[in-house]
Design a protein that fits this description.
The complex is a heterotrimer of chains A (293), B (279) and C (393). In chain A, 75% of the residues lie in helices and 4% in strands. Chain A is mainly α. The radius of gyration of chain A is 19 Å and the shape is globular. Classes of the chains: A mainly alpha (293), B alpha/beta (279), C mainly alpha (393). At the A-C interface, α4, α10 and α12 of A face α6, α7, α13 and α15 of C.
Chain lengths: 293, 279, 393
């Protein structure tokens, strides 16, 4: 492998990792607060892909992108309100089944509305612009993705660390009931969390599908699973952890594909999950939780 | 020659992050004794129970059961720097057991906030506890090749329910029992594992004086009938003073006093711990 | 006492129902040509009933959330298919890249077996291999919260799917071309088309019921109710969760093998995650923790999906008016909405965690009468109170 192809793969890997990072933040935030694997997150991400196809059909990209983000946020928040909020006091498994139900519904709805055939993802002209860096040729999206990801993560961390909302969010994730007693409006915090997660998933979806070129009703499943693993790898509940996890998984996957092991690239992700669960169940940046008996 | 103690805690320390919940606790319980562990809220009593039953592992120190090491550990890894308890460096060995192993060795417990198998019947709750000593493997048990053993377990469970006065509600859901009966059922379930040492975590919590009196004689009866040693955490002083042979008092994870009930009642350190008066 | 009478009556009733069912199946089998749809629904219902009960074992009875059904089913299906495809036609199935040598030698070794025995051996091998996989995944994952198990098993089933379709396994699984020429349940004369799947399903479900009612099954339920208390009562959590998970995977693989025999041709797309969700739908609607609920719901859902509600997927005209919404894919939307409705509003499903019993059914009229009497009394009381109020005024 020559140096320039190596750099090429690195860039692709970092770019894929950036998209993964943005999606896994959605998992990590929701899990941190509700202790729920939001199975529907993968399909929210998939729906964002379809939203883009439709938005780009009638608007220029400058208008389409905000529309897509807004639509995805609305979808995410509505899902929380309809499918998770009524189950706040239900057993954990019911909530998980509800999450799976939403995922199942979104997949079937997408199949019904847009058919199971792959739909071409529109090109966003500036993202596709080809640039030459020495001997490496790449499109702008590859460079924008990691920069955008890191920027968004920093922004989000500032929000969580220094805003009143962030404080509420941290309080809720530490102790749901007590923070409710302290007058925090739980439902609003949860809604905002879903809104942030969905917005990031929408941005991630734009970056991801621009490279993949097509969307199917099942395009969300595998990236979704990987991003959850990324969140576990980084330490569930930790935003920088999710970012690091996303990058690790994206880069590993790219190199496995580059070396011709594409069949095993998915398997390796789950190997990561199993190894991290054995070696360090709290993830790279997670903190230890002791269950009270 | 004195008997081997049933339970010995030697410098047992449990530390969570920077918080030392139990600090170098020493404690000895002789066979057939009823020993109470008392102390203000947050003194580390339940944590000590959890260390004995294997829910938490001790950060440092050694626990012996009938003379044999049950658990032993010393600060390792990150804990080595963080360790703020006493008596570091005395222990080198590491023996860790899971709660189910400890139960099978003969230590059973109840919980502060009742933990019954709520949706199952009273009978099933007790029957399940017999499972820990099952001889048959899953294959034999599935195809009922162990029907004699199964019979024995069922008869045992029924007899035990009879003994604790719950036979009439055997087929009721555990969740539907009145609160006091749930406490009794939890003790019966613990007895079904055939323990030698029974740990009761606030058995009288939430009971009125009359119920507490009933419970007191119940615990005493069970102790006599099953030749048990009992170690309990309790806040109801009447109960504690009535039936305990000895009392240990802890505060901030440390033992501040121990002795016979009348000694404890007049101990200035205990009074100050409870009332906050300078001794 | 009427309850006692019912208790004596119930084995008789059960026997009668089983006998009737048997006669019904035999008669139906003889007239299968004119009842294709009913036969297909019953076959698939029996297969999915096994899968649903197997999924219920960890999810409904042990409280661990496993989503690897599709993966374990595909292991069972592929092994059953490879072992039962007639040796003389196998070259034509693998016409692209040929059959691996070791696969052929296993097939030759089993060639002497008569067909029914071969099917049983194939199903058992499939089950055992799946159990081995389950055991290995279980070791690291079952120690942690059940959420991780959900993700790990879901991931596992996607990996299996990717592996099955991968070019490296072309000579074993025929890669993305899939397998065909899988013999069905029936012999050449058509007999056994219903009796064989029902017999296998009955045996599988019966064994699972025995497990659930054994001392180990009680321990599973204890873990579901409160794992900390269960552990304190001497139940080794990891061992019992492993047992439940492995047994479930064994029977899931058998149902997968039966599915291969039902479909006659399979490929990796048959075993997508949505297959797991289909089974989850059955389990949730039947009631988590109810075997009879799973069985009833397996047949109900299969019948509605494949037969009664089939028309949802077709454009329908009434006169000149086209019924809106009905076109390909609408059926599955309806079923996913149904799943959501059940989870949100009828969390207990059809049966909750109770089992079907004749005593309940036979006791119903009496209970209805009593309820009516109680409401009547209440109404009378209310009326009286009202009257009393008037008097006071």
């Amino acid at each position: 492998m020559s140096f320039s192809t190596f750099i090429q793969h690195c860039l692709t890997g970092i770019s894929l990792g950036g998209a993964y990072a943005l999606i896994s933040i959605g998992y990590t935030l929701v899990y941190g607060i509700l202790l729920l694997i939001n199975f529907a997150h993968a399909d929210i991400f998939m729906m964002a892909g379809y939203f883009m196809i439709f938005a780009m059909a009638s608007f220029p990209w400058q208008v389409a992108i905000p529309i897509v983000i807004l639509a995805t946020v609305v979808l995410g928040v509505v899902i929380e309100r309809v499918a998770y909020k009524p189950l706040r006091n239900a057993p954990r498994m019911s909530v998980m089944i509800s999450a799976i139900g939403v995922s199942y519904l979104l997949q079937n709805l997408a199949t019904y509305l847009f058919s199971a055939l792959p739909q071409g993802y529109p090109t966003i002209p500036p993202l596709k612009k080809v640039i030459q860096l020495g001997s490496v040729t790449t499109s702008l999206v590859t460079l924008i993705t990691p920069v955008l990801t890191i920027l968004l993560v920093i922004l989000l961390m500032l929000l969580v660390r220094h805003s009143k909302f962030g404080m509420a969010m941290r309080a809720v994730s530490k102790d749901f009931e007590t923070s409710q007693l302290m007058g925090i409006k739980i439902n609003r915090v949860v809604s905002y969390t879903f809104a942030i997660g969905s917005a990031l998933a929408a941005i991630g979806s734009i970056l991801y599908f621009t490279d993949r070129m097509s969307v199917t009703p099942f395009s969300g499943t595998m990236p979704g699973l990987k991003c959850f693993v990324a969140a576990v790898l980084g330490g569930i509940g930790s935003i920088p952890g999710a970012m690091i996890g996303g990058f690790i998984i994206g880069i590993t996957e790219t190199f496995l594909v580059a070396f011709g092991y594409s069949t095993y690239s998915d398997a390796v992700t789950f190997l990561f999950l199993i190894i991290i669960l054995i070696v360090r169940p709290t993830g790279l940046l997670g903190e230890e939780l002791t269950e009270k008996v | 020659m004195p008997d081997t103690p049933v339970l010995e805690l030697e410098h047992v320390t449990v530390q969570f992050g920077g918080v030392v919940a139990v600090d170098s606790l020493d404690l000895t319980i002789q066979p057939g004794e009823i020993v109470a562990l008392i102390g203000p809220n947050g003194a580390g009593k339940t944590t000590a129970f959890n260390a004995i039953t294997g829910v938490y592992k001790p950060t440092n120190g050694c626990i012996r059961f009938k003379g044999d090491i049950l658990e032993e550990d010393f600060p390792q890894g990150k804990m080595r720097k963080l360790y703020r308890g006493r008596d570091a460096g005395q222990y080198q060995k590491r023996v860790v057991r899971t709660p189910d192993e400890i139960c099978r060795l003969g230590i059973a417990r109840t919980f502060q906030n009742i933990r019954l198998f709520k949706q199952l019947t009273v009978f099933e709750n007790v029957l399940i506890a017999y499972h820990c000593h099952i001889q048959a493997n899953i294959f034999a048990s599935t195809f009922r090749l162990n029907h004699r053993e199964e019979r024995r377990m069922r008869d045992g469970a029924m007899a035990l329910l009879d003994l604790v006065g719950l036979a009439d509600s055997a087929q009721e859901k555990a969740d539907n029992l009145p609160y006091g009966k749930q406490r009794h059922l939890e003790i019966a379930r613990a007895l079904a594992t055939q323990p030698e040492l029974l740990l009761l975590d606030e058995p009288a919590a939430g009971m009125n004086p009359q119920e507490t009196d009933e419970l007191t004689s119940f615990i005493y009866d069970m102790k006599e009938r099953f030749k048990l040693t009992i170690f309990m955490i309790e806040h109801h002083m009447n109960l504690v003073m009535d039936i305990s042979d000895r009392i240990y008092v802890v505060d901030f994870g440390k033992r501040i006093a121990d002795g016979r009930p009348e000694e404890i009642q007049s101990n200035p350190a205990v009074i100050s711990a409870y009332l906050g008066v300078q001794a | 006492m009427p309850v006692n009478k019912h208790r004596k009556l119930s084995p008789v009733l059960s026997l009668a129902v089983i006998l009737l069912l048997l006669i019904f199946l035999i008669v139906l089998e003889q007239h299968q040509a004119s009842n294709r749809m009913v036969v297909a629904v019953l076959q698939k219902g029996a297969i999915l009933a096994v899968a649903a009960v197997a999924m219920n074992l960890p999810n409904g009875f042990t409280g661990i959330f496993s989503l690897g059904m599709a993966g374990f089913m595909s292991i069972g299906a592929y092994i059953t298919a490879i072992l039962t495809i007639p040796t003389d036609t196998i070259e034509s199935v693998y016409y692209i890249s040929g059959v691996a040598g070791w696969v052929m030698s296993i097939k030759r070794a089993l060639d002497g077996l008569p067909q029914p025995l071969l099917v049983l051996v194939a199903l058992l091998i499939g089950g055992l291999v799946a159990s081995l996989f389950a055991f290995l995944i279980g070791i690291p994952v079952l120690r942690f919260k059940s959420d991780y198990l959900a993700i790990a098993t879901l991931g596992f089933s996607e990996i299996i799917r990717a592996l099955v379709a991968s070019p490296q396994l072309d000579r074993v699984t025929n890669g993305s071309y899939g397998l065909k020429n899988i013999p069905g349940f029936a012999t050449a004369s058509g007999s056994g088309a219903l009796l064989i799947p029902f017999a296998i399903a009955a045996v599988c479900i019966f064994i699972m019921v025995l497990v659930i009612n054994s001392s180990y099954g009680r321990a599973f339920k204890a873990i579901r109710e409160d794992d900390i208390a269960a552990e304190a009562m001497g139940i080794n959590l990891l061992k019992h969760k492993e047992l439940s998970f492995v047994i479930s995977s064994f029977f899931t693989a058998i149902s997968g093998g039966m599915l291969a025999m039902y479909m006659r041709s399979i490929d990796s797309k048959t075993f997508q995650v949505s297959l797991t969700y289909d089974i989850l739908l059955i389990v949730v609607i039947g009631g988590m923790g109810s075997v009879t609920g799973s069985i009833i719901s397996a047949f109900l859902i299969t019948a509605s999906k494949e037969w009664w509600l089939r028309f949802f997927d077709q454009t329908l005209y009434i006169g000149n008016w086209q019924v809106p919404l009905l076109r390909t894919g609408f059926r599955m939307v309806v079923f996913s909405v149904l799943l959501m409705v059940v989870v949100l509003f009828y969390r207990r499903g059809l049966m909750g965690d109770r089992e079907f019993s004749w005593e309940d059914i036979l006791g119903l009229p009496r209970r209805w009468r009593r309820r009516r009497a109680v409401t009547a009394a209440a109404r009378a009381d209310a009326a009286e109170a009202k009257d009393g109020g008037k008097h006071d005024a």
